[in-house]
Automatic annotation (TrEMBL), chain A:
<keyword id="KW-1003">Cell membrane</keyword>
<protein>
    <submittedName>
        <fullName>ABC transporter permease subunit</fullName>
    </submittedName>
</protein>
<feature type="transmembrane region" description="Helical">
    <location>
        <begin position="102"/>
        <end position="124"/>
    </location>
</feature>
<feature type="domain" description="ABC transmembrane type-1">
    <location>
        <begin position="66"/>
        <end position="270"/>
    </location>
</feature>
<feature type="transmembrane region" description="Helical">
    <location>
        <begin position="190"/>
        <end position="211"/>
    </location>
</feature>
<dbReference type="Pfam" id="PF00528">
    <property type="entry name" value="BPD_transp_1"/>
</dbReference>
<keyword id="KW-1133">Transmembrane helix</keyword>
<feature type="transmembrane region" description="Helical">
    <location>
        <begin position="63"/>
        <end position="90"/>
    </location>
</feature>
<feature type="transmembrane region" description="Helical">
    <location>
        <begin position="144"/>
        <end position="169"/>
    </location>
</feature>
Automatic annotation (TrEMBL), chain B:
<dbReference type="InterPro" id="IPR035906">
    <property type="entry name" value="MetI-like_sf"/>
</dbReference>
<dbReference type="Pfam" id="PF00528">
    <property type="entry name" value="BPD_transp_1"/>
</dbReference>
<keyword id="KW-1133">Transmembrane helix</keyword>
<feature type="transmembrane region" description="Helical">
    <location>
        <begin position="67"/>
        <end position="95"/>
    </location>
</feature>
<feature type="transmembrane region" description="Helical">
    <location>
        <begin position="107"/>
        <end position="131"/>
    </location>
</feature>
<keyword id="KW-0472">Membrane</keyword>
<keyword id="KW-1003">Cell membrane</keyword>
<keyword id="KW-0812">Transmembrane</keyword>
<feature type="transmembrane region" description="Helical">
    <location>
        <begin position="143"/>
        <end position="172"/>
    </location>
</feature>
Length: 282, 283
Protein backbone atom coordinates (compact mmCIF):
# COMPACT_ATOMS: atom_id res chain seq x y z
CA UNK A 1 0.00 0.00 0.00
CA UNK A 2 1.34 3.44 -0.85
CA UNK A 3 2.28 5.64 2.04
CA UNK A 4 3.04 8.69 -0.08
CA UNK A 5 0.55 11.39 0.65
CA UNK A 6 -1.09 10.69 3.93
CA UNK A 7 1.17 8.20 5.66
CA UNK A 8 4.65 9.62 5.24
CA UNK A 9 4.13 13.31 5.77
CA UNK A 10 5.60 14.71 8.97
CA UNK A 11 2.89 15.48 11.47
CA UNK A 12 0.53 12.95 9.93
CA UNK A 13 0.84 10.67 12.89
CA UNK A 14 -0.05 13.38 15.36
CA UNK A 15 -3.06 14.18 13.23
CA UNK A 16 -4.07 10.52 13.46
CA UNK A 17 -4.04 10.66 17.22
CA UNK A 18 -5.96 13.92 17.05
CA UNK A 19 -8.81 12.20 15.20
CA UNK A 20 -8.96 9.47 17.80
CA UNK A 21 -8.60 11.82 20.77
CA UNK A 22 -12.34 12.48 21.33
CA UNK A 23 -13.06 8.76 21.46
CA UNK A 24 -10.12 8.04 23.75
CA UNK A 25 -11.04 10.88 26.12
CA UNK A 26 -14.70 9.83 26.14
CA UNK A 27 -13.75 6.25 26.86
CA UNK A 28 -11.39 7.18 29.69
CA UNK A 29 -14.10 9.29 31.34
CA UNK A 30 -17.26 7.20 30.81
CA UNK A 31 -15.74 3.71 30.93
CA UNK A 32 -12.48 4.21 32.83
CA UNK A 33 -13.89 6.15 35.79
CA UNK A 34 -16.71 3.67 36.58
CA UNK A 35 -14.30 0.76 36.14
CA UNK A 36 -11.88 2.36 38.59
CA UNK A 37 -14.72 3.14 41.01
CA UNK A 38 -15.88 -0.48 40.76
CA UNK A 39 -12.43 -1.90 41.49
CA UNK A 40 -11.81 0.57 44.31
CA UNK A 41 -15.19 -0.11 45.93
CA UNK A 42 -14.84 -3.88 45.66
CA UNK A 43 -11.59 -3.77 47.64
CA UNK A 44 -12.85 -1.34 50.30
CA UNK A 45 -14.75 -2.29 53.45
CA UNK A 46 -15.59 0.23 56.21
CA UNK A 47 -13.37 2.79 54.52
CA UNK A 48 -10.27 0.58 54.59
CA UNK A 49 -8.69 -1.53 51.87
CA UNK A 50 -9.68 -5.16 52.42
CA UNK A 51 -10.64 -8.41 50.73
CA UNK A 52 -13.74 -8.88 52.93
CA UNK A 53 -16.23 -7.95 50.20
CA UNK A 54 -14.74 -10.39 47.72
CA UNK A 55 -14.62 -13.16 50.32
CA UNK A 56 -18.24 -12.46 51.25
CA UNK A 57 -19.31 -12.41 47.60
CA UNK A 58 -17.97 -15.96 47.19
CA UNK A 59 -19.85 -17.43 50.16
CA UNK A 60 -23.36 -18.60 50.98
CA UNK A 61 -26.26 -17.12 49.02
CA UNK A 62 -24.00 -15.01 46.82
CA UNK A 63 -21.98 -18.04 45.71
CA UNK A 64 -25.21 -19.96 45.01
CA UNK A 65 -26.41 -17.07 42.83
CA UNK A 66 -23.13 -16.89 40.92
CA UNK A 67 -23.12 -20.65 40.31
CA UNK A 68 -26.82 -20.51 39.38
CA UNK A 69 -26.07 -17.88 36.73
CA UNK A 70 -23.15 -19.88 35.35
CA UNK A 71 -25.25 -23.06 35.24
CA UNK A 72 -28.22 -21.36 33.55
CA UNK A 73 -25.97 -19.69 30.97
CA UNK A 74 -24.16 -22.97 30.25
CA UNK A 75 -27.44 -24.86 29.76
CA UNK A 76 -28.82 -22.13 27.50
CA UNK A 77 -25.57 -21.84 25.53
CA UNK A 78 -25.26 -25.59 24.87
CA UNK A 79 -28.94 -26.22 24.11
CA UNK A 80 -29.19 -23.04 22.04
CA UNK A 81 -26.07 -23.94 20.08
CA UNK A 82 -27.27 -27.45 19.20
CA UNK A 83 -30.84 -26.44 18.34
CA UNK A 84 -29.75 -23.28 16.55
CA UNK A 85 -27.27 -25.24 14.41
CA UNK A 86 -29.97 -27.74 13.39
CA UNK A 87 -32.32 -24.92 12.47
CA UNK A 88 -29.60 -23.03 10.58
CA UNK A 89 -28.72 -26.18 8.65
CA UNK A 90 -32.35 -26.78 7.74
CA UNK A 91 -32.64 -23.16 6.60
CA UNK A 92 -29.44 -23.08 4.57
CA UNK A 93 -30.21 -26.31 2.69
CA UNK A 94 -33.85 -25.44 2.10
CA UNK A 95 -35.01 -25.15 -1.50
CA UNK A 96 -37.57 -22.49 -0.72
CA UNK A 97 -35.97 -19.09 -1.04
CA UNK A 98 -38.90 -17.38 0.61
CA UNK A 99 -38.78 -19.63 3.69
CA UNK A 100 -35.06 -19.06 3.97
CA UNK A 101 -35.40 -15.28 3.84
CA UNK A 102 -38.32 -15.37 6.29
CA UNK A 103 -36.43 -17.43 8.88
CA UNK A 104 -33.31 -15.29 8.64
CA UNK A 105 -35.30 -12.05 8.99
CA UNK A 106 -37.25 -13.48 11.92
CA UNK A 107 -33.95 -14.49 13.52
CA UNK A 108 -32.69 -10.92 13.17
CA UNK A 109 -35.81 -9.63 14.91
CA UNK A 110 -35.97 -12.23 17.69
CA UNK A 111 -32.24 -12.11 18.46
CA UNK A 112 -32.77 -8.43 19.30
CA UNK A 113 -35.99 -9.07 21.18
CA UNK A 114 -35.26 -9.56 24.84
CA UNK A 115 -35.70 -7.85 28.14
CA UNK A 116 -39.04 -7.28 29.78
CA UNK A 117 -41.32 -7.75 26.71
CA UNK A 118 -39.90 -11.26 26.27
CA UNK A 119 -40.85 -12.10 29.85
CA UNK A 120 -44.40 -10.81 29.32
CA UNK A 121 -44.75 -12.90 26.16
CA UNK A 122 -44.01 -16.08 28.05
CA UNK A 123 -46.05 -15.13 31.09
CA UNK A 124 -49.04 -14.68 28.77
CA UNK A 125 -48.28 -18.07 27.20
CA UNK A 126 -47.16 -20.40 29.99
CA UNK A 127 -47.66 -18.28 33.12
CA UNK A 128 -50.16 -19.13 35.84
CA UNK A 129 -53.07 -17.61 33.89
CA UNK A 130 -51.42 -18.13 30.50
CA UNK A 131 -53.26 -19.14 27.36
CA UNK A 132 -51.37 -22.39 26.69
CA UNK A 133 -50.73 -23.49 30.29
CA UNK A 134 -54.50 -23.84 30.77
CA UNK A 135 -54.78 -26.02 27.64
CA UNK A 136 -51.97 -28.41 28.51
CA UNK A 137 -52.64 -28.44 32.25
CA UNK A 138 -49.24 -27.08 33.29
CA UNK A 139 -48.81 -27.04 37.10
CA UNK A 140 -48.94 -23.55 38.57
CA UNK A 141 -45.57 -21.82 38.77
CA UNK A 142 -43.65 -24.13 36.42
CA UNK A 143 -42.57 -21.17 34.28
CA UNK A 144 -41.00 -19.41 37.24
CA UNK A 145 -38.24 -21.97 37.74
CA UNK A 146 -34.71 -22.59 36.51
CA UNK A 147 -35.91 -24.65 33.54
CA UNK A 148 -38.70 -22.23 32.75
CA UNK A 149 -36.13 -19.46 32.56
CA UNK A 150 -33.96 -21.62 30.30
CA UNK A 151 -36.87 -22.17 27.88
CA UNK A 152 -37.51 -18.41 27.78
CA UNK A 153 -33.84 -17.54 27.22
CA UNK A 154 -33.72 -19.94 24.26
CA UNK A 155 -36.26 -17.68 22.54
CA UNK A 156 -33.50 -15.17 21.76
CA UNK A 157 -30.53 -17.58 21.96
CA UNK A 158 -31.58 -19.92 19.14
CA UNK A 159 -32.09 -17.04 16.63
CA UNK A 160 -28.70 -15.64 17.69
CA UNK A 161 -27.11 -19.01 16.94
CA UNK A 162 -28.89 -19.21 13.57
CA UNK A 163 -27.43 -15.83 12.63
CA UNK A 164 -23.97 -16.91 13.80
CA UNK A 165 -24.05 -20.27 12.00
CA UNK A 166 -25.79 -19.46 8.70
CA UNK A 167 -22.69 -17.88 7.03
CA UNK A 168 -20.47 -20.73 8.20
CA UNK A 169 -22.94 -23.36 6.93
CA UNK A 170 -23.17 -21.47 3.65
CA UNK A 171 -19.41 -21.92 3.38
CA UNK A 172 -19.68 -25.72 3.35
CA UNK A 173 -19.08 -26.57 -0.32
CA UNK A 174 -21.32 -29.23 -1.86
CA UNK A 175 -18.16 -30.50 -3.61
CA UNK A 176 -16.74 -31.58 -0.23
CA UNK A 177 -19.76 -33.75 0.33
CA UNK A 178 -19.52 -35.16 -3.20
CA UNK A 179 -15.83 -35.90 -2.75
CA UNK A 180 -16.52 -37.64 0.56
CA UNK A 181 -19.36 -39.65 -0.97
CA UNK A 182 -17.16 -40.67 -3.92
CA UNK A 183 -14.60 -41.96 -1.45
CA UNK A 184 -17.27 -44.10 0.17
CA UNK A 185 -18.05 -41.94 3.18
CA UNK A 186 -21.44 -42.23 4.85
CA UNK A 187 -23.34 -39.18 6.12
CA UNK A 188 -21.90 -39.84 9.58
CA UNK A 189 -18.35 -39.99 8.23
CA UNK A 190 -18.88 -36.77 6.32
CA UNK A 191 -20.09 -34.84 9.37
CA UNK A 192 -17.55 -36.41 11.73
CA UNK A 193 -14.44 -35.80 9.58
CA UNK A 194 -15.36 -32.89 7.28
CA UNK A 195 -18.44 -30.92 8.33
CA UNK A 196 -18.00 -30.56 12.06
CA UNK A 197 -14.25 -29.77 12.02
CA UNK A 198 -14.92 -26.95 9.55
CA UNK A 199 -17.84 -25.67 11.62
CA UNK A 200 -16.22 -26.13 15.03
CA UNK A 201 -14.74 -22.62 15.43
CA UNK A 202 -18.02 -20.95 14.44
CA UNK A 203 -19.97 -23.21 16.80
CA UNK A 204 -17.65 -22.57 19.73
CA UNK A 205 -17.82 -18.85 19.04
CA UNK A 206 -21.62 -19.11 19.02
CA UNK A 207 -21.62 -20.98 22.33
CA UNK A 208 -19.58 -18.20 23.93
CA UNK A 209 -21.84 -15.51 22.47
CA UNK A 210 -24.91 -17.29 23.85
CA UNK A 211 -23.26 -17.80 27.23
CA UNK A 212 -22.42 -14.11 27.48
CA UNK A 213 -25.89 -12.89 26.56
CA UNK A 214 -27.61 -15.27 28.99
CA UNK A 215 -25.08 -14.51 31.75
CA UNK A 216 -25.63 -10.76 31.63
CA UNK A 217 -29.43 -10.88 31.13
CA UNK A 218 -31.23 -9.11 33.96
CA UNK A 219 -34.49 -7.56 32.77
CA UNK A 220 -36.17 -10.81 31.68
CA UNK A 221 -35.25 -12.65 34.87
CA UNK A 222 -36.28 -9.71 37.06
CA UNK A 223 -39.69 -9.39 35.41
CA UNK A 224 -40.28 -13.15 35.46
CA UNK A 225 -38.91 -14.77 38.57
CA UNK A 226 -38.08 -11.87 40.89
CA UNK A 227 -35.91 -13.61 43.46
CA UNK A 228 -37.29 -17.16 43.16
CA UNK A 229 -34.35 -18.36 41.07
CA UNK A 230 -31.04 -17.12 42.54
CA UNK A 231 -29.04 -15.30 39.85
CA UNK A 232 -26.06 -13.03 40.30
CA UNK A 233 -27.58 -10.14 38.30
CA UNK A 234 -30.63 -10.14 40.60
CA UNK A 235 -28.37 -10.09 43.69
CA UNK A 236 -26.38 -7.14 42.32
CA UNK A 237 -29.57 -5.20 41.58
CA UNK A 238 -30.94 -5.96 45.07
CA UNK A 239 -27.73 -4.78 46.73
CA UNK A 240 -27.59 -1.65 44.54
CA UNK A 241 -31.16 -0.50 45.05
CA UNK A 242 -30.61 -0.72 48.78
CA UNK A 243 -33.32 -3.07 49.93
CA UNK A 244 -30.62 -4.56 52.16
CA UNK A 245 -28.48 -3.02 54.91
CA UNK A 246 -26.45 0.11 54.21
CA UNK A 247 -22.86 -0.60 53.25
CA UNK A 248 -23.85 -3.43 50.97
CA UNK A 249 -23.17 -1.42 47.79
CA UNK A 250 -19.61 -2.62 47.99
CA UNK A 251 -20.87 -6.20 47.96
CA UNK A 252 -22.62 -5.32 44.69
CA UNK A 253 -19.29 -4.06 43.37
CA UNK A 254 -17.49 -7.21 44.50
CA UNK A 255 -20.15 -9.38 42.84
CA UNK A 256 -19.76 -7.27 39.69
CA UNK A 257 -16.04 -7.96 39.75
CA UNK A 258 -16.75 -11.72 40.03
CA UNK A 259 -19.06 -11.45 37.01
CA UNK A 260 -16.49 -9.56 34.97
CA UNK A 261 -13.86 -12.20 35.75
CA UNK A 262 -16.18 -15.00 34.55
CA UNK A 263 -17.21 -13.04 31.44
CA UNK A 264 -13.56 -12.15 30.78
CA UNK A 265 -12.47 -15.79 30.95
CA UNK A 266 -15.21 -16.75 28.50
CA UNK A 267 -14.38 -13.87 26.14
CA UNK A 268 -10.72 -14.87 26.20
CA UNK A 269 -11.82 -18.04 24.38
CA UNK A 270 -14.12 -16.18 22.00
CA UNK A 271 -11.96 -13.45 20.51
CA UNK A 272 -9.19 -15.58 18.97
CA UNK A 273 -11.85 -17.97 17.65
CA UNK A 274 -13.75 -15.12 16.04
CA UNK A 275 -10.68 -14.26 14.03
CA UNK A 276 -10.33 -17.89 12.93
CA UNK A 277 -13.94 -18.28 11.85
CA UNK A 278 -13.93 -15.13 9.79
CA UNK A 279 -11.54 -16.96 7.43
CA UNK A 280 -14.36 -19.28 6.42
CA UNK A 281 -16.77 -16.48 5.66
CA UNK A 282 -14.91 -15.36 2.56
CA UNK B 1 -26.26 -20.13 -3.11
CA UNK B 2 -28.60 -21.63 -5.64
CA UNK B 3 -25.70 -23.84 -6.68
CA UNK B 4 -25.75 -25.56 -3.33
CA UNK B 5 -29.30 -26.80 -3.53
CA UNK B 6 -29.12 -27.40 -7.27
CA UNK B 7 -26.15 -29.73 -7.03
CA UNK B 8 -27.31 -31.71 -4.06
CA UNK B 9 -29.42 -34.37 -5.80
CA UNK B 10 -26.40 -35.23 -7.98
CA UNK B 11 -24.19 -35.78 -5.00
CA UNK B 12 -26.62 -37.54 -2.75
CA UNK B 13 -27.91 -41.05 -3.38
CA UNK B 14 -31.54 -40.83 -4.55
CA UNK B 15 -32.70 -42.83 -1.52
CA UNK B 16 -31.35 -40.20 0.87
CA UNK B 17 -33.29 -37.24 -0.44
CA UNK B 18 -36.73 -38.02 1.06
CA UNK B 19 -35.18 -38.69 4.46
CA UNK B 20 -33.40 -35.33 4.40
CA UNK B 21 -36.65 -33.66 3.46
CA UNK B 22 -38.54 -35.32 6.32
CA UNK B 23 -35.77 -34.31 8.71
CA UNK B 24 -35.90 -30.70 7.53
CA UNK B 25 -39.66 -30.66 7.78
CA UNK B 26 -39.51 -31.92 11.37
CA UNK B 27 -36.97 -29.25 12.32
CA UNK B 28 -39.14 -26.51 10.80
CA UNK B 29 -42.25 -27.88 12.50
CA UNK B 30 -40.69 -27.91 15.97
CA UNK B 31 -39.08 -24.51 15.49
CA UNK B 32 -42.34 -23.10 14.13
CA UNK B 33 -44.26 -24.34 17.16
CA UNK B 34 -41.71 -23.02 19.64
CA UNK B 35 -41.46 -19.58 18.05
CA UNK B 36 -45.02 -19.00 16.86
CA UNK B 37 -47.05 -20.36 19.78
CA UNK B 38 -45.95 -17.65 22.28
CA UNK B 39 -46.60 -15.06 19.60
CA UNK B 40 -50.14 -16.29 18.95
CA UNK B 41 -50.83 -16.91 22.62
CA UNK B 42 -49.76 -13.36 23.54
CA UNK B 43 -51.95 -11.92 20.82
CA UNK B 44 -54.91 -13.98 22.03
CA UNK B 45 -54.19 -12.97 25.62
CA UNK B 46 -54.49 -9.28 24.74
CA UNK B 47 -57.62 -9.71 22.62
CA UNK B 48 -59.65 -12.13 24.72
CA UNK B 49 -60.73 -11.98 28.33
CA UNK B 50 -63.34 -14.20 30.03
CA UNK B 51 -65.25 -11.13 31.21
CA UNK B 52 -65.33 -8.96 28.09
CA UNK B 53 -64.91 -11.54 25.30
CA UNK B 54 -62.90 -10.46 22.25
CA UNK B 55 -62.05 -6.76 22.11
CA UNK B 56 -59.28 -4.43 21.03
CA UNK B 57 -59.65 -2.38 24.19
CA UNK B 58 -56.08 -2.97 25.51
CA UNK B 59 -54.61 -1.46 22.33
CA UNK B 60 -56.88 1.57 22.51
CA UNK B 61 -56.06 1.94 26.19
CA UNK B 62 -52.35 1.66 25.40
CA UNK B 63 -52.29 4.67 23.12
CA UNK B 64 -54.00 6.85 25.72
CA UNK B 65 -52.24 5.46 28.82
CA UNK B 66 -50.49 7.99 31.04
CA UNK B 67 -46.80 8.18 30.18
CA UNK B 68 -46.91 6.17 26.95
CA UNK B 69 -46.05 9.03 24.60
CA UNK B 70 -43.62 10.63 27.06
CA UNK B 71 -41.59 7.45 27.66
CA UNK B 72 -41.55 6.45 23.98
CA UNK B 73 -40.41 9.93 22.95
CA UNK B 74 -37.72 9.87 25.64
CA UNK B 75 -36.45 6.51 24.33
CA UNK B 76 -36.42 7.74 20.73
CA UNK B 77 -34.61 10.92 21.75
CA UNK B 78 -32.02 8.94 23.69
CA UNK B 79 -31.56 6.62 20.70
CA UNK B 80 -31.07 9.52 18.28
CA UNK B 81 -28.56 11.19 20.59
CA UNK B 82 -26.70 7.90 21.12
CA UNK B 83 -26.46 7.23 17.38
CA UNK B 84 -25.16 10.76 16.73
CA UNK B 85 -22.57 10.65 19.51
CA UNK B 86 -21.31 7.13 18.85
CA UNK B 87 -20.89 7.74 15.10
CA UNK B 88 -19.21 11.13 15.62
CA UNK B 89 -16.76 9.54 18.05
CA UNK B 90 -16.09 6.22 16.32
CA UNK B 91 -15.93 7.16 12.63
CA UNK B 92 -13.19 9.86 12.83
CA UNK B 93 -11.16 7.67 15.17
CA UNK B 94 -11.37 4.64 12.88
CA UNK B 95 -10.60 6.71 9.77
CA UNK B 96 -7.65 8.36 11.49
CA UNK B 97 -6.32 4.95 12.53
CA UNK B 98 -6.57 3.70 8.94
CA UNK B 99 -5.12 6.79 7.27
CA UNK B 100 -2.47 8.14 9.60
CA UNK B 101 -1.71 5.93 12.56
CA UNK B 102 -1.83 2.19 11.88
CA UNK B 103 -0.51 1.56 15.38
CA UNK B 104 -3.75 3.01 16.73
CA UNK B 105 -5.81 0.20 15.23
CA UNK B 106 -5.07 -2.52 17.81
CA UNK B 107 -5.66 0.05 20.57
CA UNK B 108 -9.10 0.89 19.17
CA UNK B 109 -9.93 -2.76 18.67
CA UNK B 110 -9.17 -3.62 22.30
CA UNK B 111 -11.03 -0.55 23.63
CA UNK B 112 -14.07 -1.29 21.50
CA UNK B 113 -14.31 -4.92 22.61
CA UNK B 114 -13.82 -4.20 26.33
CA UNK B 115 -17.49 -3.28 26.92
CA UNK B 116 -18.44 -6.78 25.71
CA UNK B 117 -16.64 -8.27 28.72
CA UNK B 118 -18.51 -5.99 31.11
CA UNK B 119 -22.17 -7.01 31.60
CA UNK B 120 -24.45 -3.93 31.66
CA UNK B 121 -25.40 -4.50 35.28
CA UNK B 122 -21.78 -4.36 36.44
CA UNK B 123 -21.24 -1.24 34.35
CA UNK B 124 -24.21 0.44 36.00
CA UNK B 125 -22.88 -0.59 39.42
CA UNK B 126 -19.62 1.25 38.69
CA UNK B 127 -21.44 4.16 37.08
CA UNK B 128 -23.83 4.67 40.01
CA UNK B 129 -20.92 4.58 42.46
CA UNK B 130 -18.90 7.13 40.50
CA UNK B 131 -21.92 9.43 40.07
CA UNK B 132 -22.54 9.38 43.82
CA UNK B 133 -18.89 9.98 44.68
CA UNK B 134 -18.59 12.56 41.90
CA UNK B 135 -21.50 14.58 43.24
CA UNK B 136 -19.91 14.64 46.71
CA UNK B 137 -16.37 15.40 45.58
CA UNK B 138 -17.35 18.05 43.03
CA UNK B 139 -19.83 19.84 45.32
CA UNK B 140 -17.56 22.83 46.04
CA UNK B 141 -16.44 23.25 42.39
CA UNK B 142 -18.26 24.66 39.33
CA UNK B 143 -18.39 21.12 37.88
CA UNK B 144 -21.11 20.29 40.39
CA UNK B 145 -23.73 21.97 38.21
CA UNK B 146 -22.52 19.90 35.24
CA UNK B 147 -22.81 16.55 36.99
CA UNK B 148 -26.30 17.50 38.20
CA UNK B 149 -27.36 18.64 34.71
CA UNK B 150 -26.12 15.36 33.26
CA UNK B 151 -28.58 13.52 35.51
CA UNK B 152 -31.61 15.66 34.60
CA UNK B 153 -34.64 13.32 34.58
CA UNK B 154 -36.17 15.23 31.64
CA UNK B 155 -33.36 14.16 29.35
CA UNK B 156 -30.74 12.08 31.21
CA UNK B 157 -27.51 12.70 29.30
CA UNK B 158 -25.85 10.12 31.53
CA UNK B 159 -27.93 7.41 29.84
CA UNK B 160 -26.69 8.56 26.42
CA UNK B 161 -23.11 8.30 27.69
CA UNK B 162 -23.72 4.82 29.10
CA UNK B 163 -25.46 3.61 25.92
CA UNK B 164 -22.60 4.88 23.75
CA UNK B 165 -20.25 2.64 25.72
CA UNK B 166 -22.61 -0.35 25.50
CA UNK B 167 -23.11 -0.11 21.70
CA UNK B 168 -19.50 0.73 20.88
CA UNK B 169 -18.50 -2.93 20.20
CA UNK B 170 -21.37 -3.44 17.74
CA UNK B 171 -20.84 -0.11 16.01
CA UNK B 172 -17.10 -0.76 15.75
CA UNK B 173 -17.73 -4.13 14.12
CA UNK B 174 -20.21 -2.85 11.54
CA UNK B 175 -18.03 0.14 10.62
CA UNK B 176 -14.91 -2.02 10.47
CA UNK B 177 -16.68 -4.45 8.11
CA UNK B 178 -17.81 -1.50 5.98
CA UNK B 179 -14.34 0.05 5.84
CA UNK B 180 -12.86 -3.30 4.79
CA UNK B 181 -14.92 -3.30 1.59
CA UNK B 182 -13.33 -0.12 0.22
CA UNK B 183 -9.86 1.30 -0.27
CA UNK B 184 -10.16 4.26 2.08
CA UNK B 185 -6.61 5.51 1.57
CA UNK B 186 -6.83 5.70 -2.23
CA UNK B 187 -10.27 7.32 -2.13
CA UNK B 188 -9.19 9.96 0.35
CA UNK B 189 -5.90 10.68 -1.40
CA UNK B 190 -7.65 11.04 -4.76
CA UNK B 191 -10.22 13.42 -3.30
CA UNK B 192 -7.58 15.46 -1.47
CA UNK B 193 -5.43 15.69 -4.62
CA UNK B 194 -8.41 17.09 -6.47
CA UNK B 195 -8.67 19.81 -3.87
CA UNK B 196 -11.51 18.55 -1.68
CA UNK B 197 -11.60 19.85 1.87
CA UNK B 198 -11.62 17.44 4.81
CA UNK B 199 -15.33 17.88 5.62
CA UNK B 200 -16.10 17.35 1.92
CA UNK B 201 -14.02 14.16 1.89
CA UNK B 202 -15.77 12.87 4.99
CA UNK B 203 -19.36 13.59 4.02
CA UNK B 204 -19.30 13.30 0.22
CA UNK B 205 -16.72 10.54 -0.28
CA UNK B 206 -16.41 8.32 2.78
CA UNK B 207 -19.92 8.40 4.25
CA UNK B 208 -21.77 7.52 1.01
CA UNK B 209 -19.55 4.45 0.62
CA UNK B 210 -20.31 3.41 4.18
CA UNK B 211 -24.08 3.75 3.91
CA UNK B 212 -24.99 0.14 4.64
CA UNK B 213 -22.51 -0.15 7.50
CA UNK B 214 -23.86 3.07 9.02
CA UNK B 215 -27.42 1.77 8.59
CA UNK B 216 -26.72 -1.50 10.39
CA UNK B 217 -24.83 0.30 13.17
CA UNK B 218 -27.79 2.64 13.60
CA UNK B 219 -30.27 -0.24 13.65
CA UNK B 220 -28.34 -2.10 16.34
CA UNK B 221 -28.10 1.07 18.43
CA UNK B 222 -31.77 1.88 18.03
CA UNK B 223 -32.87 -1.67 18.93
CA UNK B 224 -30.59 -1.75 21.96
CA UNK B 225 -31.63 1.66 23.30
CA UNK B 226 -35.36 1.04 22.80
CA UNK B 227 -35.20 -2.25 24.69
CA UNK B 228 -32.68 -1.22 27.33
CA UNK B 229 -33.99 -1.73 30.85
CA UNK B 230 -31.10 -2.54 33.19
CA UNK B 231 -29.15 0.73 33.14
CA UNK B 232 -32.18 3.02 33.00
CA UNK B 233 -34.14 1.33 35.77
CA UNK B 234 -31.19 1.03 38.17
CA UNK B 235 -30.29 4.70 37.66
CA UNK B 236 -33.94 5.59 38.27
CA UNK B 237 -35.11 6.89 34.88
CA UNK B 238 -38.27 5.94 32.98
CA UNK B 239 -37.80 5.42 29.24
CA UNK B 240 -40.07 3.05 27.30
CA UNK B 241 -38.74 -0.30 28.57
CA UNK B 242 -39.01 0.80 32.21
CA UNK B 243 -42.46 2.32 31.71
CA UNK B 244 -43.75 -1.05 30.45
CA UNK B 245 -42.95 -2.57 33.84
CA UNK B 246 -44.47 0.31 35.78
CA UNK B 247 -47.71 -0.03 33.83
CA UNK B 248 -47.82 -3.83 34.03
CA UNK B 249 -48.16 -3.84 37.81
CA UNK B 250 -51.86 -3.10 37.52
CA UNK B 251 -52.92 -4.23 34.03
CA UNK B 252 -51.69 -7.54 32.60
CA UNK B 253 -53.34 -7.30 29.17
CA UNK B 254 -51.92 -3.83 28.62
CA UNK B 255 -48.34 -4.93 29.32
CA UNK B 256 -48.54 -7.81 26.84
CA UNK B 257 -50.01 -5.42 24.26
CA UNK B 258 -47.00 -3.15 24.77
CA UNK B 259 -44.68 -6.15 24.35
CA UNK B 260 -46.28 -7.00 21.01
CA UNK B 261 -45.90 -3.36 20.02
CA UNK B 262 -42.20 -3.38 20.87
CA UNK B 263 -41.66 -6.56 18.83
CA UNK B 264 -43.41 -4.82 15.93
CA UNK B 265 -41.18 -1.77 16.30
CA UNK B 266 -38.01 -3.91 16.11
CA UNK B 267 -39.39 -5.72 13.06
CA UNK B 268 -40.22 -2.45 11.30
CA UNK B 269 -36.76 -1.08 12.06
CA UNK B 270 -35.08 -4.18 10.61
CA UNK B 271 -37.34 -3.99 7.56
CA UNK B 272 -36.40 -0.34 7.03
CA UNK B 273 -32.68 -1.16 7.25
CA UNK B 274 -32.94 -4.15 4.90
CA UNK B 275 -34.78 -2.08 2.28
CA UNK B 276 -31.88 0.38 2.38
CA UNK B 277 -29.52 -2.58 1.90
CA UNK B 278 -31.59 -4.06 -0.89
CA UNK B 279 -31.82 -0.83 -2.85
CA UNK B 280 -28.07 -0.42 -2.62
CA UNK B 281 -27.35 -3.91 -3.90
CA UNK B 282 -29.52 -3.37 -6.96
CA UNK B 283 -28.06 -0.04 -8.00
Amino acid sequence: MSRSLTGGRPGARSRGWLGALPLLAFFALVFGVPAAALAAGAFTAQGRPSLDNLALSLRGGYLTALLGSVKLSAVVALAGAVLGTFLAHAVVTSRFRLLREAVLTASGVLANFGGVPLAFFWIATLGNSGVVSGLVGLPSGSLYTFWGLAVVYLYFSIPLMVLAMAPALDGLRPQWREAAANNGATAWHYWRYVGLPVLAPAMLGGVVLLFGSAFSAYATANAMVGTVVPLVTLKIAAALTGDVLIGYENIALALSLDMIVVAGLVMAIYLPLQRRTSRWLH
Amino acid sequence: MAALTGLEPVAAAPARAPRARVWRGAVFLVAGLYFLVPLGASLWYTLHSPAAGVSFAPYAELLTAEGFARSLLLSLGLAAATIAVVLLLALPAMLAARLFAPRLRPVLEVLCTLPLVVPPITFVAGLATSLRTGTEVLAPTPFWATIIAVQDPGFPVVLVLAYVVLVLPFVYRSLDAGLRTMDVRTLVEAARNLGASWPYVLFRVVVPNLRSALASASFLTLALVLGEYTVASLLGYEPFAVWIVTVSGSRGQLSVAVSILSLLIIWLLLLAVSTVFGRERKS
